[in-house]
Amino acid sequence: MVNEPQVCPLDFRYGLAQMKNIFSEQSRLEHLLMVEAALARAHAKLGNIPQKDARIITQKATTKYVTLSKVKVIELETKHDLMAVVRVLTKACGSSGRSVHLGATSYDIVDTATALQIKSAIEQFELDLSALLRTLSAMAKEHTNTIMLGRTHGQAAVPITFGLKLSVFAMEFYRHLERLADTKPRICVGKFSGAVGTGAALGSSALKIQELVMLDLGLGTELAATQIVTRDRHIEFIGVLVNIATSVEKMATEIRNLQRSELLEVAESFDAEKQVGSSTMAHKRNPITSENISGLARVIRGFIIPTYENALQWHERDLANSSSERFVIPHVCILVDDILQKLDQMLRVLEIFPQNMRNNLDCAGGEIMAEAVMQALTKKGMARDDAYKLVRSAAVAARSSDSEFKAELLKMSNVKKLLPGKELEASLDPKNYLGSSKKIVSKVVQIIAKSKLLKKG
């Protein structure tokens, strides 16, 4: 057959081999054959077919005998992809072919094979998230005491630590790992109940056959199904992945912002000898990985709408979901795996500039300590609202007259009286206003270190 031109960027630019292999055309065929073999073994256990037939079907249900090329030739005739697989397998099994696909409908095989692929994909996501969490945990611990400026609304707020910032992201990704664990039993589910869910073609032992097949394959069972596994399961799966992708982009956006020239608190690594930032501006060091992540995350979120629409079936099913799902599930899985690993690799070699963090904190002016001064005044007995008005007026005066916040405070007799000398200095020192940051980081690091959810890569 003539090689077709590659059009999808997954074919030549994005995605990693591990996840691509799960959803490759070859892998898809292998999973379909695994299900056909499991069905034969279940029938044989119940005495519905000879044990010999089950052995031969299991032996022949591999891509050594049922090749893609053979299947594609038959599909051109049948216009039915699963039926083409069944016919090639039937022929390969000789007289035992009489027992192939016995009592099954196409989507008994297809949806169960999809569940197997999703299960493998989830296992890869668990590895990805575990690696990322270990990286974030180590970074958070290292930067427990690295002071930087906290920002809200794009404006200077109050001091935080870089370790706390990283801990916030770490717990977000830890919740995603929990979500995968919670949803896995609901997502990794197959079915064997025939054309409309009654299991009539499988006879009186239909439910037992379904149970045996799923036990054999390590999947849960869709007890009450139509012709297909109900798509609320796929919605939940893609929903979790879209949520993960959004968190990845959220962190990538933070890195992009912190790498801005006027901040430069962190920066993606850059090969000074070979890497090019711009084709015309030779000085540029662009956050290309973060930007790449952001772009791909937006593509991933775009798949959520067709995922919901695929759940809208006519009666016991129609075929409108089939073509859509061939895009949605592989693309989302491959791209989420891609950006998770990119984020982890980027963080491992991220350049961090604590001195710039401190410089930016100092440049924000003493007024960022207004809340700290207000709290100090209230501890001395001043009403909270009065303290607020006082420090606000000092901050406004400092801005309008281009003077220092401390100088404006010292003009106020109440402040001088309640916070004399070193007490005012202490309330203006950022390192004294980090709250429970250190304890929070420590707890996050402990949670990740002790978690049984993390997988070893």
Give the second-level CATH assignment, the architecture of the largest domain.
Up-down Bundle
- N-to-C CA distance: 39 Å
CATH class of the largest domain: Mainly Alpha
Describe the main β-sheet briefly: 2 strands, antiparallel
**Number of self-contained structural domains:** 3
User: What's the average pLDDT?
Assistant: 94
- By CATH, the topology of the largest domain is Fumarase C, Chain A, domain 2
Order of helices and strands: HHHHHHEEHEHEHEHHHEHHHHHHH
Number of helices: 19
Unreliable residue stretches = none
CATH level-4 homologous superfamily of the largest domain: Fumarase/aspartase (Central domain)
The total strand number stands at 6
Beta-strand residue percentage: under 5%
Give the CA-based shape: elongated
